[in-house]
């Protein structure tokens, strides 16, 4: 089973989106959306960014190989090209 987006009520009559892992672990919570339509558009944006956006590392430098820290993903030329270490 894949992870999923959960559309939930927020304070002030708005909505939030919760990104949940397959095991039910909460991964991320969105910003506030005033309408359900805005929240659904937010889900589409999250999908686009997650599928194509690069990882930009703003963390402090450590002696550990930075690629090992990036979610334990298997090293591939395509993934390596999408990881930028910005200051």
TrEMBL record:
Residue stretches making up the DUF1508 domain: 12-57
Against Gene3D superfamilies, the record matches this protein to: 2.30.29.80
- Kindly give the Pfam families that the UniProt entry links to this protein: DUF1508
By its UniProt entry, which InterPro entries does this protein fall under?
A: DUF1508, YegP-like_sf
Name this polypeptide is given: DUF1508 domain-containing protein
Q: Which organism is it from?
A: Arthrobacter agilis
């Amino acid at each position: 089973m894949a992870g999923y987006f959960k559309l939930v009520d927020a304070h002030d009559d708005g909505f939030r989106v919760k990104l949940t892992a397959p095991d039910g672990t909460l991964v991320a919570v969105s910003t506030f959306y005033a309408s359900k339509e805005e929240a659904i558009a937010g889900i589409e944006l999250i999908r686009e960014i997650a599928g194509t956006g690069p990882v930009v590392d703003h963390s402090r430098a450590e002696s550990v190989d930075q690629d090992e820290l990036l979610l334990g993903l298997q090293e591939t030329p395509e993934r390596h090209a999408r990881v930028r270490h910005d200051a």
